[in-house]
Amino acid sequence: YRLNEVDVTDTTCGYCAVGCRFDVYSKDGEVLGTRPNPEKAPINGISTCVKGKFSYGYVDSDDRLTQPLVKEDGEFREASWDEALSRVKEGLDGIQQEYGSDAISLVASSKATNEDNYVMQRFAREVLGTNNIDNCNRLCHAATVEGLSDTFGFGAASTGLTALEDTDCYVLVGSNTTEAHPVFGTRIKQNVRDGADLLVFDPRKTQIAEYADQFTRVEPGYDTTWINGMIRYILAEDLHDEEFIAEHVDGLEKIRESVEEFTPEFVEEKAGIPPEELKSAAETIATADSCMFGWTLGLVEHSHGTDNIYAIANLALITGHMGGPKSGVSPFRGQNNVQGGGGDMGPLPNNFPGYQPVTDEENREKFAEQWGMEMDEMPAEEGYRLTEMFLAADDDDLKGMFIQGENPQISEPNIGHATEVLEDLDFLAVQDIFLTETAEYADVVLPATSTVESNGTYTSSSRHVQLVKRAIEPKGNAKPDWEITQALAARFGYDWGFDSPSDIMDEIADLTPIYGGISHERLETEGGIPWPCQSEDDDGTPYLYADGFHAVEDSEKAQMHVADAIEPGETPDEEFPLVMTSGRVLYQYHTGTMTLREEGLDAYSAESFVEIHPQTAAEYGVADGETVTLTSRHGATAVRAETTDRPSPGEVFVPMHYLEGGANNLTKEEPLDGPSRAPEYKVTDVQVTLE
Ligand code: SF4
Asked: Is Nucleus given among the entry's keywords (predicted)?
């Protein structure tokens, strides 16, 4: 086609939280491709990755949901919207009458827009009267949010794009950046080529490790140990930033005491890091003019994830690398809108939008007044975290779920356990764009729109709120999530009267100080705005804490917390001698709902695999490409072996995207991290046997 024959719509990528923007080219309701428009793409400029560029075939997939489905005698049949919504109301009503509102839980979607998520949490609180709402943030960066908000005030990345492109030193921990956040990876590699230092800490030699000045292998589950050891060394050698600490930090003396036992020898014994490597990395960090600490789920998905975050936050504080344009902390968020939809919008069991606690009476009053509720109708107790929902169902305390755009059948720890829970629920409604593995267990399935059929906003990993625009009309009878939720609320007698996502954003801005100055009109004319953006004349905040740590409750200083080096939840033994870590691959996204329907991507990664070090493979008699059985204390799965030196001998790696052969066939639902209730995905003991 010629350019003047096609429609062009500028929008935001629906795949990951880097937040790339680009123009979508479409013709007669079909997406033809995308191309970045650098003028409208502050984060990615002229770059996108393979997913953002080519991966829209799924939208027209033959098995797209285009009509509501209801289950009858164990089989799905198509239904009208009227019938399907009535069935959902009947199902939720029945549980409410018999067991009370808290026997229902909702799972919101970090793929959906901010506006979709805002109305979902409003539905939970106002219509159902429960705080049992959560999202997949619980399975990834929940510990990051806990640790960072306790220390600095905000549970989000402090840095913006300047640090990403121009810091003097990157410290990447448990982050497979080039595959999981490809455009961030590109920016980092460019700056490293121009002279920035790159230190990578990981159990697995990821692609980004190949560009590192120093790559340090860490035993899975021992990050607190090496970070505490590094803090001890920096303090002992007087490499810390005394002036910054005196002005901005509380708690140094208790940290000094708590790290005393983390000698270089102890760190080597536990975390496997030779003393010289620990010391040279410590010196590079402490003497750098600026430093960005980036991490992903390798640091977080542990039964002591919050301690890991306390530790890395303490390291940033003692070296004075916080609050500058090129220095600070940057958790790389996973799904496209997990920052906004998974957190900022309050689909959380403990917070209203903008991280305003539900247990605070003034907050409850504010939201009750806006929504026209009596105070005694507004739920006051915190609800179940996502992981706790699946445990509460075991105990028969949870009877029904409404899941929007998530696929816990694959993403929850221990697929076997998730299956039992989904099968046993009295009522399950799922809202999605495909009949996912989770939706197969539903009583009612509601067809939603994909990202290129939706309007609204996403918030990127660097806190930029950006517009999402409809490029093609919804397929069949699919509807945007917010419209479905509003229609369901109407069934319960609630008239919200939103005409558009822009209307919803106006209500969000009224109630949520960090989004106080955001509107669709401003985003259209100004482009992405990084929160906090408190008022209409506030340009937003490219990096946090430039003028101190005022967001910390009752203090003007950052609060250091002692990071306890808690042992992983399981230890290898004779029966399960290898440690499995898990993660993502470039060509797949989350549970593969979209990407496993892309022919181009499946050519590279249609099926799961296990990476085994050649030495381990030889020990077990495994040949490259052979199918093996992996067994853990929690499950088993058959998977193809790939021999590579990316993992250490004694460790294996399995991606999380797949039902067959995926990592979560082997992971466990407990223990959970204390503060965040996030699971320990990153340490699972396994044995390998030949098929
Ligand atoms: Fe989309 Fe992430 Fe790729 Fe950018 S890096 S194009 S946001 S998937």
From this structure: no
